[in-house]
Protein: Glutathione peroxidase
Amino acid sequence: MKIGSLLGALSVPFTQNSFVERPENITITATKTIYDFKMKSLDGKEVDLSIYKGKKVIILNTASKCGFTKQYADWETYYEANKDKVVVLGFPSNEFGGQEPGTDGEIAAFCKKNYGVNFPMFSKVVVKGEGKCDLYKFLTTKSLNGWNDKEPSWNFCKYVINEKGELTHFFASGVKPDSKEFMDAIK
Structure:
């Protein structure tokens, strides 16, 4: 392991409860919303994200072999209790410590068997750096989303999207559905 990646991994627990909120006093100049994207589900079907219009959306970058993997259960419970007005979308990625090495089929089986995940899960994507998928380019590029440039710092970071498809918050890995800052954001 490289020294830089080791230091990055060691710092993870110290930075994973942070969040960034869209400033209220700025005029959003986003050029897109999440409704402009189509993504491939774990079972290979194209999903037009515009089907989530009118709901809040929580976007998670997930991994099956991470210390935060147990959050699948937290987010599944949250989704089941709130799916009439909030949808949770999982996007597996392998950028952080190689903690999602599986195929889409293996990821789907793992999530269902170990955590009973019913919220929509998507094909593995790149969420940071070179090769970043278009959805995560939108989430992490200020000129596209109107205010945020924060990339995921580890697995299970969260992006909150309002009912209009606009990005409103970013939460680091340690923030769970029952965290005060998350509950305040989702109101």
Remarks:
- The two ends are 42 Å apart (CA to CA).
- The chain has six helices and seven strands.
- The CA atoms of residues 30 and 78 lie 28 Å apart.
